[in-house]
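Worked example 2:
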Amino acid sequence: MLECVVNISEGQDAAVLASLSDACGYALLDRHTDVDHHRSVFTLAGNDSSACIDAARALTDAAASRIDIRTHFGVHPRLGVIDVVPFVALHSTPSSEAAIAAIDYAKWVVEAHRVPVFLYGDADLENRSLPDARRTAFKTRAPDLGPHEPHPTLGAIAVGARPLMVAINVDIDKNDLALAREIAGKVRERDGGLPGVRSLGFDLPHLGQVQVSMNIVDLEQTSIEEACVEVERLIIESGATVARIELVGLVPDAALAACSKEFLERSGLSEKISLERRVAGREENRD
């Protein structure tokens, strides 16, 4: 089984989002939308690689026909309309299948939409990271596939293959972007923080708050609870308060099991966000 977590640069137009969800069909497990990020994350899964790739292609076609990057604004960094497309091997599926699916999709999107592609993770021969792709795209690094200039309406796409990870946000009940960025820097592995944690600070103008947004890319080194508790500690230490903890997408059972019951209850996280349970529930409904 393969998972594909497609990040689309649209988080405000309900009609467009509904059409994108419809395009995914049976493969859609979850959609997370953020108005301030102006971004939505579509979690797709298929019992074989072709089903997952087909759903990702359908979502790409729908987004390409409805969204123009030239009119996009949002606090989250982005390369294009169909911004990030990672493939993930689930259960006993070998990781090589995710890399093969990523390359398959990348070649298709170049042919179908003439969009430049930057490869990352296991799909990239140099195993470069997504943050590296964002920092170097069109500056010191040319696209791996496709045109050498951004598409006029679609921009570019980062396509990769990676292990399971967790994206989670901690909102701060204070309008202080400098504070969010300071805390993000303290927990970010690259700056000497927590192992396997990537983090950014964002403004949330619709809420009058700010956010520490984390990708936990190595759950064996740092658990969800460890990352969030450290951010909470730094927020409280600064004199601010935690507004909420928000998960983006779904979480593997093992990552939930590594958290204490007290943390899960306090954070509002439950078995409903389990990737495995969502897949099982879909299969039961199908039967």
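The two ends are 18 Å apart (CA to CA). The chain has two domains: 2-161, 166-278.
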